[in-house]
Amino acid sequence: MQKKENRRYCIGFAGLALALCVLLVGNLNAGSVNLSVGEICRILFEKTGENAAIVWDIRLPRIVAVVLLGGALSVSGFLLQTFFANPIAGPFILGISSGAKLIVSLTLIGFLGRGMSIGSVALIIAAFLGSMMSMGFVLLISNRIKRMSMLIISGVMIGYICSAVTDFVVTFAEDSNIVNLHNWSLGSFSGMTWDNVGVMSTVVIAALALAFLLSKPISAYQLGEVYAQNMGVNIRMFRAALILLSSVLSACVTAFAGPISFVGVAVPHLIRSIFKTAKPIIMTPACFLGGSVFCLFCDLIARTVFSPTELSISSVTAVFGAPVVIIIMVRRQKHNQ
Amino acid sequence: MDDYYVYTDRMTVGYDGVPLIENIQIGVRRGEILTLIGPNGSGKSTILKSIIRQLRLLAGTVVLDGRPMAELTERDVAQKMSILMTERMKPELMSCWDVVATGRYPYTGRLGLLTQADRDKVDEALGMVHAVELADHSFSHISDGQRQRLLLARAICQEPEVVVLDEPTSFLDIRHKLELLSILKTMVREKRVAVIMSLHELDLAQKVSDRIVCVNRRSVERCGTPEDIFQDEYIRGLYGIERGSYDTAFGCLEMEPVQGPPKVFVIGGGGSGIPLYRLLQRRGIPFAAGILQENDVDYPVARALAAEVISEKPFEAVGEEAVRSALQTLDRCERTVCCTTSFGEMNRANMVLREHARDCSLLIGIGELEQFVYKGADEHGTTAYIAGDTHGFCC
Predict the structure, then answer these.
(1) Domain count, chain A
(2) Structure letter (DSSP) for residue B132
(3) Facing residue for A230 by CB, picked from B73, B78, B110
(4) CA B145, CA B287: separation in Å to the nearest integer?
(5) Which of A46, A228, B139, B321 has the CA that lies 20 to 30 A from B111?
């Protein structure tokens, strides 16, 4: 039994790693300038040549960002699902991404309107505040109503309210700088710089490491609060840690790439189906890898299908992610009957 | 309070700062079972939840192994106390083995990885509850009885000094009730574990517990040994039993007697009358039972169900007076059934009663009684029985 499980985990991780490698190459290749694998290798190792700038300054930072943020989003979803004991919870569905989007937009408009520039760290902080704001509302509602569907509905509503306010603000902000803001508010990985990557990797990797260290209490928490406490988990501290970590992760994503839908729900579910486990010690790294693969794949499609026009990443993730959510709900319904 | 492993000191429990039960003083020693009984809503679960720190105490302390629990860390408590509560857990994608293994959690390191020793303990615990074959099953696809057994295995492999269980036998069939309690008893005897639990099955509580705590009307009404607590009158009062009765000697619950002038006279004794008493009660026919010595096994049931019981003192041969009053009653009844076939020195009088009934053509057999019972019930207990062949027939 134990061996069979371990083999499944190994195969799962190997499969994800392979997919990641293939997609990394694919993403480096594809674009308005098509590069061969050989050329890419040469550029990567020698850093010279006519297309070096494309690879090093545009595609590579973007790919690293996709890997980090995709993974972060999916882990954030997994943490939220654990917290709410609800398989459809995720940063986008619960309106947490939209809350972050709202505060980030307000901050950007505030700063840019006065002709000031704004750093990555400030953006993350703004996004974090927005996340916590939405999270606060969701927690307030979930404390009063224990029903699973109500939690999701309230999250979606909060998301709509925040999006509406954001649209309103963006529409009426008359600054040429804000053109980009519109793209960002729909969700996009474009325009990543190495500076951005540096900041986001610090935040994401730190948060991931902490999430991984929480594996043990998370597995206890999966049995319910009462039993978790009896297993020696300090429930208040643990709940706070879970909320903070998932908010930081999704805030980081929103700060750089805008709100991205469905990754947080679909990926953990797919990973659970592939690995046939919910053990956090497997789930956290697997969700990260899965999120990276899923987002690389979606970003590839967003960039190439209607090239040179780029699709918003959220549209692509929704196409692949939303059916997964429907499948989860149908299956659960069947299961309950 | 010195030798108690867990005790509460002036503990006040309640929800949202509103006290429900105040100044609770209960305790349990190692190798002892303490059982909370009492009607629904009396606060048994609230007390248990407060002891395991699921609810915050409003006043007082719980002392575990000589130290107030408020001073202990979660991990300290987890290594000494395990629980089995009524909360339904629905873990996703966990095998039964995984769920049991969570009991080892307080002993594992940072990442919660199990060592071989941990695995062995999990297997051992599964063996103790006879659930080895369930190990690979998914925890969400098993029956209530299996779930309780596995949760007990989880509690066992946590290697506790004290186990707190909230209604562990509810929803289990009788076999699994007995099994679960026997396993618990084994733990108590062999590992000197202390047990605090709540039970709704009074008969079982009486048989397995060393001490009983009665929780009623939001207070701890009484504490004591089962022998102190299980008195018919007290239990009747504790649960406010008005319809029917509870016999503490046998742990036997009876419905309320049918009132009214008796229609059937049942001659019983030595356990032969009980099925008939219950049949008549079910059909709503008032009956008289006689003549029973007060130490007869039929006597408590007859007392509980019959409209009238004619009895004799324990170990006495049936005397003149009892026979006289039995004959009076028998003559007022429409039918007589004789259930007993054994007559001896002590109940010779019952044979007299039977002969008298036969002489008056009142004696009927069980089969005929069935007809009487049905007809009687149809026509509101009037004499609708059409006498057929009334030869004396003993059942």
Answers:
(1) 1
(2) G
(3) B78
(4) 41
(5) B139
Cα–Cα distances (Å) from A247 to A214, A281, A287, in that order, read 15, 20, 16
Nearest residue, CB atoms, B78 vs list A216, A222, A231: A231
Q: Classify strands B245-247 and B287-293 as parallel, antiparallel or unpaired.
A: unpaired
| CATH number of the domain enclosing A174 | 1.10.3470.10
CA closest to B81 among chain A residues: A230
Count of Cβ atoms closer than 10 Å to residue B116 Cβ: 7
Q: Please tell me the distance in Å from A225's CA to the nearest CA on chain B.
A: 9
Specify the DSSP class assigned to residue B16: T
Tell me the per-residue pLDDT of A170-205, one tens digit each, with 9 for 90 and over.
777 766 666 667 777 788 888 888 988 999 999 999
CB of A334 within 8 Å of a chain B CB? The answer is no
Residue ranges of A 242-281 with Cβ closer than 8 A to chain B:
272, 276-279, 281
CB atoms within 10 A of CB A163: 18
Q: How near does any CA of chain A get to the CA of B75, in Å?
A: 4
Beta carbons of A83 and A236 less than 8 angstroms apart: no
Residue B122: pLDDT band with limits 50, 70, 90 = very high
Q: Is the pLDDT of residue A169 over 90?
A: no
> Is the CB of B92 less than 8 angstroms away from the CB of A272?
yes
CA separation for the pair B30, B189 (Å, rounded) = 9
**Among B74, B95, B135, whose Cβ lies nearest the Cβ of A233?**
B74
Secondary-structure class of domain B6-241 per CATH: alpha beta
Give the pLDDT mean for B245-270.
90
Chain B residues lying within 8 Å of A87, measured CB to CB: 92
Q: Where are the domains of chain B?
A: 6-241, 255-375
- Beta-carbon separation of B102 and A277 below 8 A: no
Q: CATH fold of B255-375, please?
A: Rossmann fold (3.40.50)
Three-state SS at A294: helix
Smallest Cα distance from A277 to chain B, Å: 5
Share of chain B above pLDDT 90, in %: 65
The number of beta carbons lying within 10 Å of the beta carbon of residue A158 is: 22
Strand pairing class (B219-224; B245-247):
unpaired
Query: How far lies B275's CA from each of A132, B102, B261, in Å?
Result: 69, 49, 21
Task: Return the number of CB contacts < 8 Å for A and B.
Answer: 76
Tokens 């002891």, residue located = B51
CA separation (Å) from B207 to A113, B179, B180, B200?
Answer: 80, 14, 14, 13
Chain B, nearest residue to A1 by Cα = B136
Residue type, B124: E
